[in-house]
């Protein structure tokens, strides 16, 4: 129940960040709705397609698709507010990430998948919406460069499963995961924690180009 | 029957526009066939994957894949003709859009999907082929900027379903939808009807980038 | 058995080329693992999704995903070696291509698909990993420009199926296909064999842009 409410808050916030990205590419209303929806529910869609988990959530519950389309269109009116109060979106996005992670993990667990696949499902749910947004808008995907993001989804899902494994009741496990994951993500932003970055000079490019055509 | 003929005309025309896009990127024959096929049958493929509707149409009927590959290769010979008589392609593309929309709508209806999902299926079928083409060829997707396109697919599917709902016979419903949708699309091109565009200055970019990493 | 070993060699080599591409984009460790895995097992994933062949190979056998993630991370340590001994990767990549092609072909054959779909399955398995890598890293896909690559996968799959059709035992068919396909790919690189390229001047662009919006 709490998860459902937080899920709706999460997809709304994600849809709005998607709409802003569409606006920077001067897209029309259809493009705005498309990018908003891909950002908000694309991660869960990719997860379900990979797992063969049909019907997709937004096809069984089209109201979620309506919410993301409307949130996208609403953003075209209130963009200045969204940009101005972007700190609220940082918070909503962090909350959404943990909620997506828990929900993605549960889908895979309910299918009886092994632990590693449950972790992958959590990360895909949390991260691939933003990836799709950046692919459609032709930006280098932010999640592959910036502060801990996929890692937070990974850790949150691991924490959630570990608690269930050790007999913690579901509600408490969800609560602990939400609070811990949320604080971890905010700390990662605040202190600019990031994974090590792998850099290759383009000058090293030449010999490699022949290697893999 | 008529729909099948129009479908073949539609995928042939779409495959040719895909091949032209591949030619502008100096792709080889394999690339030409890939982009041609993605443009022509990619929309239906994405729709079927989202709906979990297997087998995919072109896997059950590989002749459609052969047609798009051959149409793509043929375009490498007759490109000057295609460019010269591009107005014919505007017309074929408009026809194809409505045919794709009706067929996509019918697939979802046969699965017993709710109305909103049938509309989404119609739009995905009509629009995602061009989206895939532009992603592979690394162009900003045209359908997200230009005259009414997705909207025409949406309206055509709505008109088709409304007629069936009110007891109009299938053949008449198809005919009315084809003519109306086709004229609507041509009118949109002629009079440059478009959806409102959402523009954000890149200067508004900075604060937002932090919000969603 | 031999195929399984070669498959593991193949995905390891592909994961390393994917990691190098990620390094040129200055991605973090998560990005490196994502691109490495997409390059190595993305082709089989796309094939299985198109065929509706569930569960996906790496979900049923998560150890393959672990291998590609670890190979990707390892590349961040030994990148200079990988770049220096790139000729070894040319060879491993050529081997991987034929192995992927045979395995992709077999999946479709086991599903009872017609010959043309088996050929498509082989090409998709061999080629789409590299395509996904180049899409995520925003490069124009190399496989659509360079020496025979998809064509080699196509020919290898055709040769394999032809042998089975004429009663050659499976092991011999695999051996003959591996050797022939491998030499064909190396010859294509050595002598720069390529498919004809389709070029259109951008000046021919203007009239066409109206044709397909």
User: Helix coverage percent of residues of chain A?
Assistant: over 70%
Q: Which class of secondary structure composition applies to the elements of chain A?
A: mainly alpha
Unreliable parts of chain A: 204-213
Estimate nothing, just give the exact number of structural domains of chain A: 1
InterPro entries (chains A, B, C): Gly_transporter
Keywords (chains A, B, C): Cell membrane, Membrane, Transmembrane, Transmembrane helix
Membrane topology (chains A, B, C): Multi-pass membrane protein
Subcellular location (chains A, B, C): Cell membrane
Structural summary, described in words:
3 copies of one chain form a homotrimer. With 213 residues, the first copy, chain A, is mainly alpha-helical. Chain A has helices at residues 2-24, 29-51, 57-60, 63-84, 86-110, 115-136, 150-165, 170-190, 205-211. The first copy, chain A, has one domain. Chain A contains 9 helices and no strands. Chain A is globular, with a radius of gyration of 18 Å. Chain A starts with a helix and ends with a helix. The model of chain A is unreliable at 204-213 (pLDDT under 50). Chains in contact: A-B, A-C, B-C. At the A-C interface, α2, α6 and α9 of A face α1, α2, α4, α5 and α6 of C. Chains A, B, C: This is Trimeric intracellular cation channel family protein. Chains A, B, C: Its main location: membrane.
What would a concise description of this structure say?
Chain A has helices spanning 2-24, 29-51, 57-60, 63-84, 86-110, 115-136, 150-165, 170-190, 205-211.
């Amino acid at each position: 129940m709490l998860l459902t409410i937080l899920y709706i808050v999460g997809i709304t916030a994600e849809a709005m960040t998607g709409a802003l990205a569409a606006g920077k590419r001067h897209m029309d209303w259809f493009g705005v709705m498309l990018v908003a929806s891909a950002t908000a529910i694309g991660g869960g869609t990719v997860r379900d397609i990979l797992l063969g988990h049909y019907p997709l959530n937004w096809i069984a519950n089209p109201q979620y698709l309506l919410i993301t389309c409307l949130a996208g269109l609403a953003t075209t009116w209130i963009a200045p507010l969204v940009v101005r109060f972007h700190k609220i979106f940082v918070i909503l996005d962090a909350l959404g990430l943990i909620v997506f992670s828990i929900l993605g993990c549960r889908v895979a667990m309910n299918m009886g998948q092994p632990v590693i696949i449950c972790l992958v499902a959590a990360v895909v749910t949390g991260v691939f919406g933003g990836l799709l947004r950046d692919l459609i808008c032709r930006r280098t995907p932010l999640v592959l460069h910036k502060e801990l993001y996929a890692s937070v989804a990974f850790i949150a899902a691991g924490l959630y499963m570990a608690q269930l494994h050790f007999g913690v009741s579901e509600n408490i496990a969800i609560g602990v995961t939400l609070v811990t994951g949320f604080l971890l993500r905010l700390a990662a932003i605040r202190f600019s924690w990031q994974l090590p970055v792998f850099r290759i000079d383009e000058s090293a490019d030449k010999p490699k180009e022949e290697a893999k055509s």
